[in-house]
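Rather than argue in generalities, we reproduce a single protein record, letters for residues, whole numbers for local backbone shapes, just as it appears below:
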Amino acid sequence: MLMVPRLFGTNGIRGVAGTEIDAGLAFRVGSALGTLLPKQRVLIGRDGRLSSPMLLEGVAAGVLARGNDVDDRGLITTPALEFMVKNTPHSAGIMITASHNPPEYNGFKVVDSDGIEIPRAKEEKMELLIHRDRWRASYQPGRRIINEGRIESYFDGLEGQVLVRDAIQSMKIVIDTGNGVAALTTPTLLRRLGARVIGINDVIDGEFPGRNSEPRPENLGALSNIVREEKADLGIAHDGDGDRAIFVDETGIVQPGDRTLALVADELLRNHPRANIVTPINTSMVVSEIAKKRKGNLILTKVGSIEVSRTVVKVGALLGGEENGGIFYAPHHPVRDGTMAAVLVVNAIIRNGRPLSKLLDRLPRFHMVKEKIPCKEEAKDHAINMLRASLKGRISSTLDGIRVDVEGRGWALVRASGTEPLLRLYAEAKTEDQLQEILDEFRPLVLNAVK
């Protein structure tokens, strides 16, 4: 196959709207999918970014010009669109979103007929078509159908995973949707189940005026405060397209995504020992400890939701998860779904009759740091190669980036971001002192490699 520049990163195509991501590229993305999957109906949806309506029109034009029908779902979360693709015969999908990136960014997530982002091999075929930019004319353009807001079957699927509906009616839950499209799903679902829901940043606004779209602890101060002030049972924060969820316990503490994943794994493995759990190489040791305790089988992948989803399907896993708040629950749909994650955490609280903080206190505790180190796109490979040379003989894995396990203490991982111009440094250890020792060794190495 002819080699062309990569467009797809870790999670779809992303860039600055109006320059890197424009209507012309949107047309080519839609045309490429229509060419790759002829006669498939293409479901298209968008997040609330200001550039999303323009990009959706470009995608729709490309799909229609190839003779494929368009099922326009309008404003929708990524997991809801993926679920609808899976349950609509002879369909594929394109979601216009840049997920947690700043408001000036946008992009495309391309969904295969099974409701999961297309595998790498199909990404490469689409890239070849996009760069070639020569299209066979269709003598019969496709038809466009508007189905915005029609996701009832998605809600039905979620409600089918709820353990005890009556118990939810006594819960008070604060939900920070970060002005993203999850405002359409999680608050609606939990209110339908009878919970008292307090919403913040729940008006969809593509400029994300309430907070940064990424649900990191430093962005969730308001949510923590309101959980404490309202004496709520739980706080939930989503990213821009609703496929991730970070949880705040009843004391107002923002809990890391790894620990939530470990809690869900612990709950599920109780009833399904020896089940497969899939997680990327940058996930905390707490997940591996829980899998070991419950006799589960932990399978590591590269970083990226596509890698996790495809592996969950390949090995028949029960659960997948990421350190950033992504939960993939196969009995519903093996994709990252923030609203499904909310159901699973609420189920755990109800099943145990204990608050979230107490449930998480039962888990092993490790100390982790995740840092972003700016690095130009064209310098990423050189920096990683420099690190590989300097750490020769100590590297324990090159599955994704460079990982070094420090015996008896913890580990460090350096990998190039697939969505932003930076390197990511992860480090974890059993104690804070050991973590600092690992950081003191590896941070200067990364900074030197970037320079």
